[in-house]
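Input for the complex:
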Amino acid sequence: MSQCILVADDDREIVKAIAILLEKEGYRVLKAYNGLQALDLLASQTVHLIIIDVMMPKMDGLSAIMRIRQQKNLPIIVLSAKSEETDKVLGLSIGADDYVTKPYNAQELTARVRSHLRRYTSLGDIHAQSSHEIRNGRLCWNSDAHTLYADGEPVRLTATETRIIDLLMRNLGRIFPAEEIYRRVWGEEPYAPENTVMVHIRRIREKIELNPKEPEYLKVVWGIGYKMEKK
Amino acid sequence: MDTKWKKSKTAAGAAAFCLSWGLLLAVLAAAPGNLSILKEEGLAALTAQDYQKTRQFREWISGRLENYLSMATGGPVNQTVWYGGSQAFYPGGYLGYAAEVTAVYAEEATSVSTEIYEDETVVVEEETPAAYGHSGEEGQTPEGIYQYGGQPSADPDTAALYRRQAEQFHADSKEDKNLLYIIEYDGETVYTNAEGAGLTGGSSPSAPEGYNFLLTFDGEKVKIIKDGKETDVYGDGYYEEGDDWYVPGYRNFTADERASRARITLAAARTPLLYIKANYSGDGFTQSYSPLYWMAQNLAMARRQLAGWMGYGAAGLALLLPAFLLGRQRRQWFDKAGAAISRLWLEARLILACLALAALFSACMAAVTIFPGHRTALWAAGLALAVFLIRLTVSSLCHGRGAGQNSLTARLWRLFQTRQLKLTAEKQTLRRYALLLVLQLLQAGVLAAGLIDLASLLYLSDMFWLPAALFLAAAMAALTIRAAVKSRKNAVSLDRLTSQIAAIRTGELENLPALPPGSPLAEASENLNAIREGLHTALEEQMKSERMKVELVSNVSHDIKTPLTSIISYVDLLNQEKDLPDYIQDYIRILDSKSQRLKAMVQDVFEISKAASGQLPVEIKEIDLAKLLRQTLADMGEAIEASSLLLKTALPEEPVKIQADGQRLYRVFQNLIQNALQYSLEGSRIYLSLTVKENTAAAVIKNISRSELPADIDFTERFTRGDNSRTDGGSGLGLSIARSFTEACGGTFQVHTDADLFAVTVIFPLSGQKSAPKE
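Predicted:
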C-alpha cells in the first residue's frame, strides 16, 4: 500500500503541482486548502506525512501543526515563502520536522519526503542500534562496519571519504581545519589542503545531503574549517 | 685635515663676524670724541705733527699776548699761567678729564672750591682779583668795534693789585722757557724771561735757535714768523668769529692808545720740554706743568688716538669681508653652538647672557680707566665678546622655535596643560580663572607699590598716597574677584552644557533638564534641547520607516514568491515531460533559467534591504581571512576551472585573523569572484591578493572588464552593472550585497576602476587591534 501524504496550501496550483510531483514518485496525495481542512482530512484518513504552508486562511499552518502534534507523531514538513531564520526556528520549535522554503526545489522536496518517511517507518530498526553506531539526524555511522547510513540506507563512500566521515562523525560539532583533516586522513604533511579537502567534502555532500547546495550536515565554517553539524 | 680646515673655517667665520662688529661698534661709540677733535683741529693740523699749527696753540698764544699787553699797560691779568680757558692742558688726555686729573694734583688746595672743579674751570692762582674779567669783551665799544688792551685803573689800590698780579704772573711763567717773551712799554722792557736766550725784541726781532715761532706786536699789528716765513695773520683785514688769530690789528679789532705803546715779542720752542713747577708754600700744594709741552704731547696723543680709531674702523670694515664670505660657515658654527647650549633652559640662557654682558661691561669700564690710551681697542674687544654672546643667544633661541624651545616656563606650562587636558572644561576654566586671579592680585600689588614709589618720587605725602594706593589696589582686587566669581558661574553653565551635548552624543535622548533661565547659556541649552527633540523625532521617523521598508520588502517578496513557486513548480513538471517538441523544450529552458534568476533576485533584494536597514543578523567570530579566501576558491573551483579565465592568487601562509561573520564574508567573496568570472574579458586573468598592512588586512580582486567601464558610476549601487542593457545573467545586486555584508561585518568596501581595470578592495581591521580610531 502506497504511503499517504497530506499537502495543505491555500494556493491550489501549488498543491496540485506538489501532488503531481509526489504521485509520480508513487505516493498517494491528500489535498487541503486551509488548516481546518487539513485537520479534518487527518482525522478521517491515514496520513504518513504532512506538507503544510504557514500562511493559510481559516487556520494557519502553525496552529494546525500544534493541534496535530497533540495527537500524532507523523513527520511534518513546513513549506513556506517565509525564508527568514526566525521563521524556520519558530516552525521547528512548535513541532515541525523540517522547513522548506518556497520556491522549493522539486528534487529536494521529494528527497526530504522520502527521507522522513523512511525514518518514520523504520523507527523500530533505528532503535535497535548497536554501541558501535553513532546516530546524527538522518545519518548513522557504524564504526565497526565502516558504513554510513543515510535514512537507513547505506551510502557508498570511497576509502578517503570513509576516513573523513569517520573523523567527523566521531567528533560531531567539532570544527576541523583543513590542515588537520588532511593530516589525519591522508597521514601526510598538508600541501594546499583546502582544495583537496573541499573536493572530497563536496563529493560526500552529493551522497548524503538532500540538497547539496544547501548542506545540513557537512558544513563549511568559513574562515575556520569544516564540521559535521550535530542534529 | 680637510675636516680640520673646515672646522677652523667655521670658527674663523664666527670670529671674523664678532670681531668686525665689535670693532665697528667701538669705533662708532668713540666717533663723537674723535670727530670733535677732528673738527676742532682739522685733519691738516693733526697730520702736520706740529703743535703750533693747532687751534689750541693759536688761542693760547692769543691769550698770552692779551695778558702781556695787559701787563705792559698796567691792566688786569686775564689768563692763568698754566691752565686756562675752556681747554685744559694736563698730562694724559686731550679732552674731558681735566677736573679729575687736576683734582689729584690740587687735592689739598683748600682755597679752590669744588664747585669750580665741577665746572671744569680750573683756577690755580689763589689771588683771583674781584675785577677779574675778560678785557676783550669789556673793551668793546658801543659801536660794536673790538678794542684791545687792558684798562689801567685810576684807583691806586686797584693799580697796585694789577701790578701785583702782573708780577705774580711773570714770576710764575718766566721759568717756562718753552715760551720766551719780551714785554716793552714806551721802549722800556717791562718783563722778560729771555735774558741771555737770544731773543731780541724791538724793531728787528729774531728768535734764538730751537724757537721756530716768533710773534711780534708793534703797537698796532701782530707779525708772526714761523719757520722763517711770515704767516698771514689778518686775512681780509676784518675779524670774524672763528678767525685763526684773536689779536688786535684788524680793521675792526684795534688796540687802544695805551696798547699801541707796547711792544711784545714772543718765541715758542719747536720742541717744548717738560717743565714742572711745584709750589710747596702757601695754603696749597700744587704742581704746575708747562702748557706748551702738554699741548705738543696731547696733539701727539690725539693723533695716535685718531689714527688708532681710523685703523680700528678700517680693520672692522676689512673684517666684514671675511665675515661675509664665511657667512655660511659662521651660521653653521652658531647654529651648532646654539643647538649645543639650547639644552640649557631658556631662562638660564637668558640670565647667563645678561650676567655675562653686565660683567663684560664693568670689566671694560675698569680696563678703560686703567689703560685710557687703549680705550677703543678695549671697547672693541668687549663689544666683540658682547656680539658673540648675543649672536649665540639668538641662535640658541632660533634653534627650537615655539614648543620646541627648551624652556622651564614652557615645560611647566605644558605640564600644566597636559594635566589640564584631563580635566573637564569647567575645571579647566576654573583653574585658568584662579591663575588669572592670582596674577591680577599680584599685578594690583605691584601697581600699588609702584604708585607709592611714584608718590615718594613726586614728594607727595605718604599719608595721602599710601591709603589711596591701597584703596585702589583693594578696589581692583574686589573687581577681579567679582569677575572671577561670575566667570566661575559661566564655567559651571558651560560644563552643564557640555555634559548635555555629551549625553545627546551618546544617544541619551531622554529629556535632559535645560539650564535655568538666569544662566548665561540658557538659550544655547534650550536650542540644544530643541535640536535633541528634532533629532529624536527624526530618528524615530527613520526607524519607523526602516521597519516599514523591511516589512514591505518582506511582504512583497513573500507575495512574489508564492506565484513564483507555482511557476517554478510547473516549469519543473514541464521539464520532466520527455516527448515535447524541441522548440517547446527550448521555451521551457528559457522559462526555467529566468524563473531561477527571479528567485535569486527576490532573495537578494530581501537580504540587501535588511542589510541596508541594519537588520541583517551577523555572527561575529574570529576567523582567518586567508583561509576563508582559500575555502571560497576551493568551493568555487569548478566554476573557475570551467571559465576561460585564470585566477592568480597571492595569499599569505600565516593566518590573517579578523573579526567577522564567516558566512556573510563568504557571500561577499563568492559574489566578487562570480562577478569577476562573469564580466572579465575572455582569457584574461583575475588577481586575488591579501595583504596585511599595519593593523588592517586588505583583500583585493582585480580583473579586466569585458566591456568598457563607465567612468562615473557607483558600482555598489543596487542594480548597477558595467553595461546598462541588463541582458546578462546578473541581478545587479552582487556588488551591492558584497558591500552591505562587508559593512555589516565592520569592514570597508572600495571599488576602483582604471580604464578597463576593475578592482575591489575589502579591508578589515586585524583581530586584537582596535578598529581605526574614530577621530
